[in-house]
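>> Question from a student workshop board

For tomorrow's exercise we were told to take the sequence and the ligand below, predict the bound structure, and bring the output to class. My setup keeps failing. Could a helper post the expected result so I can at least see what it should look like? The ligand is zinc ion.
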Amino acid sequence: MFDKWRKYTVVFFSVLMLCLPGFSIYAETVKHIVVIDPAHGGEDTGVLSIDKIAEKDLTLAIAFALQKEMAERGNIEVVLTRNSDKTLSGDERKKIIIKQNPALVLSLHANGGFGRNASGFELYYPGFKDVDISKKASQGSVATPKHLNDTVKLAHLVQSNLDSLFPRKGRGLREAGVPLAEGLSIPVLVVELGFVTNPDDKKKLASAKTQTLIAKALAKSIKSFF
Ligand SMILES: [Zn+2]
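>> Workshop helper replied:
Here is what the output should look like for this input. Compare the format with yours to find the bug.
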């Protein structure tokens, strides 16, 4: 009798030992899909600098650099809304996002305007005022939806990682309407990477070296988010 139980116990623990590494491998291989949206493209150049450097080219270059950075992180798959210089409407971008059902979306822009002196990065996240509070109140809860809280969490990570690259000068986090996020229940963060209209920012944004540094800062933020 004892021998029989001992045999069962040995078999049980042997099976357990075989399964445990499997569980830890499973934990490491849970795939997160991240959509990176290089804004503008094709006929839509976005902001142009004095020497005709286009926002659409900067966002694509930085999206490629970010995809390359993320390739080394095995459990995060990066999908771009565009891989080339093509025109893409907001609806088309949204369709790609819905199809991928990602854990988060980063939409990359470069800023322009407010004179030559405006510089630094800005982060836009959907406004909490868009949430139907009355509906939530009638359900006995006024908690904000998780994806909005997650967007703020992501925004803070991106802000602290980009801080060393661009002087903020009072810019940074901004709550605003984000058309790309409308109707979606996932974190969507718009990153305005710097001002194409500011000579120093433009020089940084157009340099391959800074593009890599920006990509590294964004990759670090995404990794910390998960
Ligand atoms: Zn833009």
